[in-house]
Amino acid sequence: MLSIDNMEPKAFSLLISALLIATVHSSRKMSVSIIPSNGEIYVGETKYFMCKATQEAELKWVTTEGDLEDEPGRFETEKVDETLIGVNVTLSSIEPDQVIKCQGETDSGESSEQEITLSVIQRPKIVGDFGSKKEFTAGSLVKIPCLAEGIPKPKVSWMRNGKAVSGSQGRISVHADGSLQIDQIQLEDSGIYSCAASIDVRGEKDQKSVSITVNAAPVVRLPNKHLNATSKSNTSLTCSVTGNPAPHITWRRGEQPVLHDGEKYILSSNGQKLLIVDLDKSDEGEYTCNATNSLGMESASLVLEVTSEHEKGLGAGVIVGILLILFLVVMLAVDLTCFRTRRRGVFMYISTNLLGKSVPRVKLEETEVKKGSTDKNQVVNISGIDA
Hints:
Blueprint: H1 9-27, E1 32-35, E2 40-42, E3 45-53, E4 58-63, E5 66-67, E6 75-81, E7 84-91, E8 98-105, E9 111-127, E10 133-137, E11 142-144, E12 147-151, E13 155-160, E14 163-165, E15 168-169, E16 172-174, E17 180-182, E18 191-199, E19 204-221, E20 226-230, E21 235-238, E22 240-244, E23 248-253, E24 256-258, E25 265-267, E26 273-276, E27 285-293, E28 296-307, H2 316-342, H3 346-354, H4 363-377
Parallel strand pairs: 2-9, 10-19, 20-28
Antiparallel strand pairs: 1-3, 3-7, 4-5, 4-8, 6-7, 8-9, 9-12, 11-17, 13-14, 13-18, 15-16, 16-17, 18-19, 19-22, 21-26, 23-24, 23-27, 25-26, 27-28
């Protein structure tokens, strides 16, 4: 019988080591884990999953219907070693979620399992004929669809020239199906419109842009209908014109066309400004700005009046001087009247109260006073009583 007392030291050490290893293995609980733990797979793509055991075990993949069998183009399993197996999963189409499990069992009968849910996801994508350029006529109703695919369903938003378009901005609105609608489209609605389909939880986005051009008949605006200018000076007549295609602009005075000659008449490159040099009376009259394109024609007119230097009239300083003189004359007349009747007028008040000068009484008044005194002394005493 084998006894510890009879064992060689080397054999004894080996026995102790074996016992320790057996004790460690028996104290560890076997478990399995699946890496990665996220079962989301992009449609049409392949994802690799590993099942790792903490001990050597018999490992396998199973489904709710039994063992997972290899299926080319869908499931491909492989055994790496006694603690690791893997599976390639390809989801080529949109399908319901599916649960698969990794099961492991050791020789001692200890078992463990881990499951993962395989989910199909799809990046956002704008589909259909979106186009890169579109043309419309002013006043028409415009609707631009933006169809988007993705799992989960993407959020659709619009931007115009880099600025967000909300659900409703007057004539511009975004429908629930993602389409953009513009009521009574106008020339100013032209620009670059971008549709974006996004899945924010994954930070994914697809975007397409379209250039919208609006064709419109000309619209002509003049800053004023009447213009005054001085002879020998230069003056500019300006009309503001919008329209697409770009309108052709011409000018006329009365029924006569006004042409660029570089001397008397100078037209800007776009024709919207007419400079008239060295004005004289013969330049007076009605000037008309006319704009024409393939969609229509519009014109606007103004009257130019030329004033000669000698017709300019009195200046502001002269007018003020005349008014001041008239005021002084009126005040002097009032003061003389007051002086004769009440002995004091405005100028006399200023002289006596402000300048401290005395003013002699009117001789006529002194004579009247003396006459009154004489008449009193000549009263006849009939009653014998002193007056």
